[in-house]
Amino acid sequence: MVPPGSQLGPLSEAERKAALVGSPVAGHYEKQVDRESAYEKLKARTEELAREQAQAQPKQGSVASDILFGRTGPRGGRQSQGLLEAMAKSAARTVGSQVGREFIRGVLGSLLGKRR
User: Fold this and answer.
1) 100 vs 67: CA distance, rounded Å
2) If you ran DSSP here, which 8-state letter would residue 60 be given?
3) Can you give the pTM of this predicted structure?
4) Is residue 68 within 8 Å of residue 85, measured between CB atoms?
5) Cα(97)–Cα(99) distance, rounded to whole angstroms?
6) Which residue, 54, 87, 83, is CA-closest to 71?
7) Residues 81 and 70: beta-carbon distance below 8 Å
8) What is the largest CA-CA distance in the chain?
9) Side-chain half-sphere exposure of 50, counting CA atoms within 13 A
């Protein structure tokens, strides 16, 4: 029989110090490091972007530019679609559907067309 390799009771102060000094990571985890958290980094980035936007753009947009180009929210997101963007989307959709319709007619007409 082999006696147990562990101790059942608490360590004495001298044994505790000897275990700490003999540890391979002794001295490494005793240093306190206060790193910048992700929250702090994101908060600083949003504050910097807000300052840049405040300097680059005037506070109030004109009504005409809001109607033509749309509005942007306080966080930079789009709130509404402008008149020019709506017209461009509509024109692109119309052209795309017309081209698609003509293509399908051509393909189906050549496959299923009448023989002369």
Assistant:
1) 32
2) S
3) 0.36
4) no
5) 6
6) 83
7) yes
8) 108
9) 9
